[in-house]
# Entry
Amino acid sequence: MIGALLVLWLAWQTVCPEALQHMQAATEAEKQKQFDRAVSEFQKVTELEPKLPDGFVRLGQAYMEKHDYGTAIVPLKHALELAPDLAGAHQLLGYALLAQGYAAEAIPHLERVNEQTALGIAQIETGQLPQAVTNLQAALAKHPNDPDLLYYLGRASGLLSKQSIDTLLATHPNSARAHQALAENYFVLRQMPQAEKEFQEALRLRPDIPKLHLELGEVYAGSSQWPKAEEEFRAETKVQPGNAEAHYRLGAALLQQGKAREARAALQIADHLQPDMPETLYSLGKAAALEGDAAAGERAWTRLLTLEKNTSLAAQTHFALAGLYRKQGKVAAADREMQEFQKLQSPVTQPEAVQK
Amino acid sequence: MRIALLLLVLASALLMCLGAAPIGLFDVKQPRGIDFILRNSPTPQKYLIETMPGGVALLDYNNDGLLDVFLVNGGRVTNPMQPPENFDRKDKRYWNRLYRQNKEGSFSDVTEQAGLANAGDGNYGMGVAVGDYDNDGFPDLYVTSYGKNILYHNNGDGTFTDVTAKAGVAGGGWSVSAGFFDYDNDGKLDLFVTRYMEWDTKHSKTCGGEWHTYCPPEEFPATTNILYHNNGDGTFSDVSQKSGIAAKKGRALGVAFADYDDDGFTDVFVANDGMQQYLFHNNGNGTFTERALEAGAGLSEDGRRLSGMGVVFQDYDNDGRPDVIVTELPREIYGVYHNEGNGTFSYGSLVTGLGVLSSGSSGWGVGLEDFDNDGWKDLFVAQGHVLDNVEQIDPSLHYLELPMLAMNHNGRFERADSGVTAPIAGRGAAFGDLNNDGWEDVVMTALGSTPIVLINRGGQQHWLVISLRGTRSNRDGLGARVRVNGQTRFATTAGSYLSASDKRLHFGLGQATTAKIEIAWPSGIHQTLNDIHADQFLEIREPEKP
# Structure
């Protein structure tokens, strides 16, 4: 680095006054965003001082400001021939090459200056996904919530995940995990028959893999096949008795079938394993109310409303409480809950009164 | 021979031991003479009307004791439609059709001779209501359309006359289900007409991005329903504003009537699409108040809006109070609103088992009828998705579906075989005893298809079919509450979707060979008949004096 600066300093000591004048004119044009004029002036500098690396760097930069990345590459490369350690030239050349799609060629230049964002992007393009994730994470730590960085990190992670799954599928195509991965992919694509088939195959090979039954149950639940969903969720509770979600899903599937007593039992286990889950409390209230235990229903829903205030689930809970009170003949309480429900409602569910 | 008989007995015993499903209740028929095709004319333009028809009515228009069938057709839709809209209803293919039932069970097309051939080129047909609005003993027809509606007066000689202009009931816009009922108990049938939305072909849209689908109802402005008061002189007055019915805009598709709070006045339940349902409480003074939300019958159990399409307003659990079942789109599950008896309803879709039966289906025409005569009303739903390309959007859903038959076991529904094996785009459904054997039959419409006629195979249980003959009340006793051996029916031809059912009241009596009948007439007269023999068609005349 010091060597590069020394080269630059020595070079500037011998620059002719005419070149200096063009350099000043180019700099002034850049400030005024007159990039065509800046390019023209920098070109004169490079013609008058062909051994001056900075002239070529500034010319390249001016082209880049014009978004003419392809033309920028030539002077930047020439600058590096004159001064191979010139950091600014590496950085700009790395950007220009990346912008032109020469990601592999850009990487060494970006590595020289540790330009993590652009390097990460270039590494995505060249398939160096673990390195890309590392660089983008480091960049994101310096610039949290940067939308571009968040996007590229997400993309790199997704591709890395896909790469990993592709390797799994290529090397162990008949393994339970391969079938699980395929099934999850089909599930995301909403290709449920294929997802079901792959989950079933995975289960046939390794029935003890945690979450497999849960995922297959979700396939059935997604297409409202509640008895089958119940069967899978129940199986998951056997594989993972401590998994609150499995018990919750089982309770919800039972509830859909009107099996209130069984649903309530499953939901109570879910509530015990993971207390204060709003969804569990909502379903628990429904199961209790369906079973005729209004007091327990009211308790679950009231508890839920201490956790959720202004959400759609809170609105649903107020609505459910209104129904519960209405059935008990508690008109005032039902009206109060309906008012709370309506406060939280979006306009689409409101009745449409005629505009006078 | 003896061995063959023995094998047959053994096979039957084996089937019983294995708990094999009983043979289906219905024979699926294509009755001779019915050649109607419901021509909805789907276009790439995806005009919303194309997926919505059409209605069916079961009525005895010539009073020969046999139910006849009236079918509403859509019309020809061009791609795109050019103004003025012309649905080519003069073309025979797009006529509505009246089929007279012959004594041996076949049907004759009497459309032209009955004067029902041309429903107007500007009218795309939707539904039908049946009622004897002039109490002359012959059922009249009201046909709804996108365009103008038509009231056909039954002349009593096998012909009908279009009296729409004189009666003042043309409506306008997009009318859907309609029904006759006597809201003010003056003995004359009034008319309720649902309207779907403010829509016309000029302002049509397509939705669904690359899939190009029919739009959801929210894409178009809501509109009002119409209530016509029968003046008793062959004319009607539009009392929509005065009665409060027009105070609520909605996106109505279905309508059904019953007196839910037992105050002696018939109330109205309107199935709205993509929004809250409406329960218009009859205040008894010519006005209505919409009470669905406060009564607990406006939204789903979770407070979500519903895609209400068809509706039935009858008592499914034999507690004497009319309940509501609303058919909807998949993932919403059909709404069961159980009447609690204090003017409120509780949500019963899960506890009745209907939730699990309906969560993947789209329901339209619907009826609660005791198909196996065991004393519990069973559920029949015509099914098929709104979108003819729904599989491309969600492969787990289907445009063509089988109808739902769910048998009622003490208030809980369990799926049964309807006998229909080919999925269809089911829409309208009407219920009645076509062959007068005491067992309820079904006629269902399907887009692009001939109607599906389900003839009940019958069985050993007893039954009773009652015709009401009003004297102080309207002639057909519509609105009467009839209780037979603990079961209750509310006399109506309305309900379902776009359709009108047999006005006769059918009761399954199970093993009972006699019945006690209690009738609360709309006039307020109560009538009781004891020790009535089962297995008969009985006409009951309303006493002249209380």
About this structure: Residues 351-356 of chain A have pLDDT under 50 and may be disordered. The two ends of chain A are 78 Å apart (CA to CA). Chain A touches chain B through 39 residues (CB under 8 Å). The CA atoms of residues 278 and 304 of chain A lie 6 Å apart.
